[in-house]
Amino acid sequence: MFFQSFKQKKIRRHGREIEVEDIFLDKLAKSREQDTDISSIKLEVPLKRANFLVLMILVLGIFLFFISFVFYFQVFQNSNYKTQAQNNNSLITHFSAERGIIYDRTMKQLVKNEATFDLYLNVDNLSSSTTVETALNNLAGLIDIGLVATSSQQILVKENLSQMDLVLLETKKSQMPFLEIKKHTVRHYEINACLGHILGYLGKISQEESQTLQENYDFSDYIGRAGVEKTYENNLKEKKGAIQVDRDAKGNELSQKVISQPSSGDHLVLSLDLGLQQKSLSALSQALADIGGSKGVVIALNPQNGEVLAFVSMPCFDNNLFAFGITQDDLNKLNANKSNPLLDRAISGLYPTGSSIKPFMASAALEEKIITPQTSLYCPATLCVENQFKKGEANCYPDNKFHGWTNVKRAIAESVNPFFYMIGGGYQSPGPSSKFYVEQMPKNFVGLGIARVKEYLNLFGFGAKTGIDLPSEQEGRVPDPAWKQSYFKTALEQKWYLGDTYNLSIGQGYLLATPLQLAVGYASIANNGKLIQPHLAKSFINSQTNESTDFAPKITRENFISTSTLEIVRAGMRQTVTSPAGNAYSLNSLPVAIAAKTGTAQSYGKAEIYNNWIGAFAPYNNPEIVLVVMIEEVPGLRGSAQQTAKSILNWYFSPKKPEPTKQEKFAPIATSTLEADIPIIIPTEIFSTSTEVVATTTE
User: What is the pLDDT of residue 152?
Assistant: First the structure.
């Protein structure tokens, strides 16, 4: 009864009701705890509230990070990974049309496109069990191969596949899906007109170029490497088309889809007259054969708009050698050739001009009022100036013959050196007591001086690139005291002497110019004072619409010489042809009125070897052509350049313009008409370094 009544009683402990049995159980547990000392062992330790919060925040942060990571890839990178996934199932390949054609001004085709095929190995298409080495070994059992070039995705295995190779590879197409045959266009160039320097050639694009060029170039592409092929690469290059090839998971082709159509490059029409080019080559070749030479230049320009009508640099080279990839043996032969056929002498060859510079010197003197058309200077056979370092001695500059009283027109026509010495560097009489005194000579004639000589030669375009649309043009050099001081090492060499100015005034000494610079300078005399940028491009024809866009001529400088000055200079150049004493009198028999100026420059320090020049324009009253001929290493006083110019101009102005022949011969020209162009060898003495004759084709 007691226990029952006790059981029914509720006892509250720590805010809760407990039964009676709990009291005995607690007592029993406490007794056991004392016996085993288990009270010192804590079975459960509750976490602190702060630690629990840190743990919860960490777990939540990790969860949010993964959620945001998934969201970024699912939303922001969706299109990117979708494209990559599609690329696993499809392949974009490019296919090309043809490169633009190049024509002469009469639409005669100068280059043709020929199809050829190359073999590539696509590394990405190799199976997991096939290595590049294994694939190449298997391929070597079929055809002869030799690795040409590689990229990270493709290996160019063989170029210019034969018909037999194409047949064999077609039969193995299913077994070797990693192989790809690509078509590319090979250029075949006109070979009978010495066009290598003009047209240039194509070359295989490098891996670096294909990655850095902004245009869409593939590893298999070819790119212009020289000539107008390089200059007008963007115009001539074809626009690629694209095909999407869909594949299954095993790489089998499912379908094809044309994404974009290709289009051919624009066609380029050159200002070049192929007939005149061939005639120029024929005439120059004959002149070189007559002297046993190999190096020369012919340039013909339209002085009114700067169009290049003919452009011959000999020796020529066959640019078709580069079309299929030149062999190392052929390249070695070209580089070993002492005549350097790869050098474009018209724009990269550097030469002293000889007396060809004199019309520009006359223009400067007239413009600066150093002389007038009526000025007459006494020109002895030998012009002597007193040596400022050695009293009683003089430095003498001989001419080839005595001319006496000379005005500017006669000085141009007969190439009177003392006249140009004086207008260039001035003259100071040594006085009556000197044994070198000449009574008729001026007492104190003030010339242009080196500063003004350089200024006017620069105005006519010397010492600067003409800007022609060909690569590798050289600037040339118009020397002055600052140049000489920087070029030489010793104080004696660095000093600018009167002999340097005299030398420059007749186109000798340290002056270097390209034949094209001389042609552009003469064109400015012919067109009444406009310096026009020469160009080979005449127009572009859109390959899709056939619309033509003309090349706009560019005037780089005008109104820098007065009309009256140029009229006098042109009259002097005309007198060069019409006067029996003129240096180009043989041209007087041509069917139109010609104006000209000859030049002879010492070559490589050899007294009897010369670079032979002539510049001419015609018709005299309304010039339509400027012609410059330069022939290197002419032995003795021969009119090789004049022979060449006469033959070309006679053909150009003939009514029917017959096709040139290689058997043409030239009428001999009397050497007496060239005597005034004999280069002057200045006595060395103390001025040895200042009067050194410099003549070279490369600097």
Answer: 59
